[in-house]
Amino acid sequence: MKYIDEFNDPDLARRLLDEIRASVTRPWALMEVCGGQTHSIIRHGIDQLLPEEVELIHGPGCPVCVTPLDMIDKALAIAARRDVIFCSFGDMLRVPGTDRDLFRVKGEGGDVRVVYSPLDALELARRNPDRQVVFFAIGFETTAPANAMAVHQARRQGVHNFTLLVSHVRVPPAIDAIMSAPACRVQGFLAAGHVCSVMGTAEYPDLAEKHRVPVVVTGFEPLDILEGIRRAVHQLERGEHRVENAYPRAVREQGNPAALRMIEEVFEVTDRNWRGIGPIPVSGWRLTDAFRAYDAEHRFDVAGIRTEEPAACRAGEVLQGLIKPTECAAFGTTCTPRTPLGATMVSSEGACAAYYLYRRMTDAPARQGSRIPQEEMNPVG
Ligand code: SF4
């Protein structure tokens, strides 16, 4: 399949690995920011093929995983209302809130529906004028343009029973926060190619300069990731810290101007809490005042919700690259995709889910003995 098979070529992968081995002279720690990259790395065993000097640290780039607990609990409270049709991508349905998840709300009679686009939710609102339709608008810069478009269309078409519960997050402030943490070991970044296809690369040179780290915009197939690693290691060995685009088939420096215009019209930058990490300044988007009428937090009374994370869950450390999922005592025992304690075990981009799916039998030998039921993994990305 064009653009997929050709980026899985084993001979080219060996050549890239040989180049990385030939250039590396000392230990380097690189962070892949995106959960999609993490899954590709673990699935294809890329981290195990690299020379031992090159360590990959998994970053917080799983949107489901970093959606804050209070926002999940607000979603649960809104979804339980009898006048609401609550729409979400499938990944969110099993994300644990303080005492339940959206599946539980659905089982208890809530009208919770999986949609594949916010425009599907808008269509539901048009067809059900006597109900309130809420779309759970989570995600990084990648999902923001479509969510902005849905609100833009709702206003243009005069659809007033449609709102977004917005929990958008932005990558560059998260990189800045990770690099500013005292315990940070990251020396270079593989930036998320799909985020940069929307936003471009303009936000990264200042970060590379401030923290003196290479930032290589990287795709998601095995050869994309190896090429990103090769370029990052090459820069580190030469003492450089530049932004490089290793994903030119999708990313241009200026990003996607139409998508950027839509985001700018509908959203404004705000501080945002990241689940497991905490507040990060200017790391999110919210609806502007002009679109406040389409804000579910504004329309429904969801203030004052009290949240509580399970004490055993170490997802915050996983998301910051401080531990690997298998170092969590709950991994594969009390925490599995069927009984998740944290969102990183639920999401198709979560690091704990990746290790459970691809490494449970090898990286956690004490917990061997049961097969991994494929159906435990949520197929909706
Ligand atoms: S394995 Fe489960 S409990 Fe442990 S950090 Fe991951 S999600 Fe949390």
What does this structure look like?
The chain has 381 residues and is α/β, with parallel strands linked by helices. It contains 17 helices and eleven strands. The strands form two sheets. A six-stranded mixed beta sheet has the order 4-3-5-6-11-10, sandwiched between helices. Strands 2-1-7-8-9 form a five-stranded parallel beta sheet, sandwiched between helices. Helix 8 links the parallel strand 5 and strand 6. Helix 8 (144-157) packs across helix 13 (257-266). The model is unreliable at 365-381 (pLDDT under 50). The structure holds iron/sulfur cluster. Residues 312-315, 318, 325, 328, 330-331, 335, 340-342, 344-345, 352 line the site of iron/sulfur cluster.
Detail the topology: elements first, then pairings.
Layout: H1 10-23, E1 28-34, H2 35-44, H3 46-49, E2 54-61, H4 63-66, H5 69-79, E3 84-88, H6 102-107, E4 111-114, H7 118-127, E5 132-139, H8 144-157, E6 162-169, H9 171-180, E7 188-192, H10 193-199, H11 204-211, E8 215-218, H12 222-237, E9 243-245, H13 257-266, E10 267-274, E11 278-287, H14 296-299, H15 315-319, H16 351-358, H17 360-363
Parallel strand pairs: 1-2, 1-7, 3-4, 3-5, 5-6, 7-8, 8-9
Antiparallel strand pairs: 6-11, 10-11
Helix pairs in contact: 1-12, 2-16, 8-13
The structure holds iron/sulfur cluster.
